[in-house]
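Cont'd.
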Amino acid sequence: MNWFICFLISLIAAPLLVGVINKIKALFAGRHGPRLLQLYYDIFKLLKKDRILSSTSTCIMELCPIINLGAVIVATALMPMAGYESPLGFNGDIILFFYLFALGRIATIFAALDTGSAFEGMGASREAQFSAIVEIIVFTIITFLALISAGGFSLDLLQQISISSTGVGLAITPLLLIALAFLIVLLCENCRVPFDDPETHLELTMIHEAMILDNAGPDLAIIHYAAALKLWAMSGFLVVLVLPSVIVNGFVTICCYLVGIILVGIIVGVIESILARARFLKVPQLLLSAFTIALIAILLLSIFKY
Amino acid sequence: MLTITIILIICGVFVPLAINKNSHIVNTFGVGSIVGLSAKTIYQTIMNYLAQDGILITPFFQIPIIILGIAGAFHSIGYLRGHWEHRRGLYWALYFLTIFGMLSVIEKFCSMSVLGILLAWEMMSLASAGLVGFDTHSKQTQRAFWTYLLASNAGAAFIMLMFAATPDHPILWIIFMIIGFGLKVGFPILHVWLPQAHPAAPAPVSAIMSGAMLNLGVLGIIFFSTPVAILYSSLIGYILVSLGVIGSLGGILFALGQRNIKTLLAFSSIENMGIISMALGLFFISRTNIAYQTTSIFAIAGAIYHIINHSLLKGGLFLSAGSIYKQTGTLNMEELGGLMKRMPILGRCFALNSVGICGIPPMNGFIGEFLIYVAAFYGVINGNSLIAAISATIAISLAFTGGLACAAFSKCFGACFMGEPRTEKAEKATEGSAFMSAPIVVLTILTIPATFLAPSMFIWISNSLEIPTFAKDVNILTNLVCIIFLLYMVIGFIYFVHNYILPGGRKIRRGPTWDCGFAKPTARMEYTGTAFAQPLVDFFSPFLKSIRKLSRVTTNLFPKSSEYSIETKDAGTSLFWDPIFKLFSKLFNKLHGLQSGSLHFYILVMVIAILAMLIWAFAF
């Protein structure tokens, strides 16, 4: 029951996280910035509009945003939240969790190529390149989690990891390294600075925004919402990874969980404010360094463990 | 049974050869004999199953042959229309012999008769070589034919050597086995024939070769490792894992750099065979140890499941490539584009199959890879350090392969089917005959049961290997399949809401693609497939060694047209085999002096040879 409440909160509050990030960025820039609920207004405005589709495009363009949203919703439904296990969880769901994001990504790439626009092709090409490297980091992180949990590799076990590792103490360093690697993955997957700039409208410098140039109206609303929900789900993963989740009572735990997610939003906002977007040629290096961090974490853990 | 076989051979080989021209009768006999052969095989397998006789792993290898054999036969009717009219009978005879050869290889593997295996193997290789070189006019095809023939016969030679070595010399046995069957599977360095033969062969033949024939190499390795398995299981495992990791990553990287659809698919086959041999290797490493029982079950189940999935998906993709070639006359993806509107059925099937072959849910390709991931992570969990390290390597390289496969197949699908047509050929394409589309549609539909039957397949695979299954292992798959079903439901629900509830009077409007204010965007402004893959190809250029050519750059006031081309050639050929063959041809050139034309010299050589033989005969 408590899990369902969390799930509903996630579905409803996901756009809020984007608002928090934008608010933090505005604070750093000394502006008032858009309202916290701005994304809700945008989504509702877009839902009221007509659908406009490119005359070049086919059913792929109509279907792919929907597939993307479906994949992200199911992935969110796999997440344990605030210490409560997802009813859908099973041993190995962590693989499915990340592969569902891959489904969303390939759907977006297909839809981008469907318009036949050079800009969208460019964005799709970059997305394909970076995501291939991100996959390595993600599965290194899962390997680490499998190694540390020593009993299975479901998302639910993530919570027990944090508890036991605080007990062990030694395992905290590798765990923090993994959290850092995952933060980099989160930034890349959700198209944040230093990988992509969600603000810019110069097509040549964008990835995600370039891929959705031709989507309008309800389709664009779906894409925005799916992006926000994906950010929420991945932030939730990070929170569960780092914060020890001891169920004290339902309300307090859920509040702690939400505060954690907002904290991730604040961290992302701060990173976006103080960093510039990296050159595209440097991005693979940044990703490979995250991979190295994850490998070092595995190395440290195996030294501590054996 | 023998009578039926003889009747089938007469119907499948002699009748088409006797008529040997394009007519419905030949086509009917061709397809009919394939269907008959399949029915006979199914009947025999069921009988064997009921009698508890024979090795039960074989159905997993017979199913792809039967499905792709029939699908390819129907596709051939459409594909061959207007081609090789006067040699139609020969095509059907060779086609029948290829399928018959493959099925008898499996049969002979079970009965373990050495001569039978060699004969069946040779029949399969020769018949398919005839099909690879069926287009006698093209020089490239002829080269592919010779490469393929050479590779197959070298493979057969190594299999003979393996039998000669006997399991008493286990190391030799293993080496010859890996090379002999590896030449068929397409392990790295041994893979040279794949990227040449697949583009050259007619599409239905590529489909059965990639989808069904490569599997037989895997089956060979599974079967013939048994005699030496007790002591050397881990050794075979290490070899297979390292070949698999190199093969999967290398295969997909080279696939990225290709412009020809069928070459891309051929490299992707190398990748998938790499994945399968990784899983198989993990099985060999972990099966000797009781503590890793779960790993070994999941690894072998993943390997076999991936074999079936790869057959269905790659068969569909190769047949689609054939349809594209038939309708447009080109396989170069830079000359295509916009086919989704012109060939809607084919486009949808191609999209689904591409997603599947990348191992993305909800398609069946994901389930095979999922099983391998589970195996690898179980290896990590309760590993001693070595198995844990190998498992981690497998998991990470599988993930990287998956990511690169997404890039390669979105390139292929995007360049061929999306956007506007780049040439007139693509502009005029149509769906083509139902004989060509129907098998592709059927293969695509078959992926759905292949997805949802995963739990029962898992039980079946482990039963056929006589490994006990535990409820918790099966539960993983049951849960997975349920969630995939849920995914379909959620997507369907959103689709329903989006299209039927939300609109409320809102219209769908069509407009041109946004191109920064360009009034008339043309197909030349589209992103090409080469451009799409360029960042990754550049990033891996130290391995790929792509050849770049930039010609006619003028720095004058009025620049003339210039050309830039980039080609990624198979490194296995250019870096490994070509130097070796050049070296040998140099050496043999030196022997040219022997052929001087003087009779005295020849007699001298003969006398020396006879003397040497005499000495040898007496001395030893």
